[in-house]
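Subject: Protein record for review, amino acid sequence with backbone structure tokens
Concerning: The relation between a protein's sequence and the shape of its backbone.
How to read it: Take the token row as a discrete description of the fold.
Enclosed: The protein record, placed directly beneath this head.
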Amino acid sequence: MSYLTPPERFKRLPGLTHWGRGLPPLSEAVPAMEAWFRTPVGQEILSRELQQVDEVLQCLFGYHLCQLSVCRNLELTATSRILHRFSLNPLSPTGDQDHGPAALALPEQLPLPAESTDVVLLHHILEFSNRPHQVLREAARVLMPRGHLVIVGFNPWSLLGAWKALATWSREPHWRYQALSVRRLTDWLRLLDIEASSLSRGFYRPPVQGLRALSMLQTWDSWCERWQWQGGGFYVLVARKEVTPLTPIRPLWAAGEVLQGLGAGSLPKSNKVARRQAAPPRNRGYKNPPSQS
């Protein structure tokens, strides 16, 4: 066994969530995240995310918009100008879902044809996926050229990320996610010919479950969000799929060129060129040509 490979008993620990090890299954993570977003701190984070996502979607246009979220009963695309909006959920939607059409699909295997969607929204779906590379690859596949990818994720370099590092050893599934930094995401997207175009952050307070504590830090949070400090609890990354168009170059065939190897002679010349070559040469040096003795 290699020294760089952790033993099997360490892989089963709930705190070891690097590269998909120790992640809870989606059957546990999705209900846990839905319940956490109903808490005071979860509602505060969700309201800030909705505000920034609305500002982003108002500037994106197209015909089709796909949403993949870790919450089944959440609609993030209500203010979008795109008419056809639908959701793909990793679990069966609950009965109280009253927004837009939805379908059951895995984020690693999207049931969509290639280059068929203008905007793809990933809401905290990468943090609970064992194969985040495959999720991004599928999103890039279904995106149309010049289409946009909107990613909402938790920032590991924040107070929320530090709180998550301390609470990871607990048995609560909503803290057992893998936080992906913006730098890592941009590197992965660049391999898929997707370039980041804008980035915004929000929620600079610790995730304490108390309305009084959250309201006391409201001024600090507003000041940091105004100046877009890097320590925001979440980020909204907008990237665009770049496709280099290929312009065909037409060959320029010269007049009278012989096609080598095909046995074809020279091309026929025009009548004007034939008359010019048949005419006798002019004597430009004398008015009268010298007599021949």
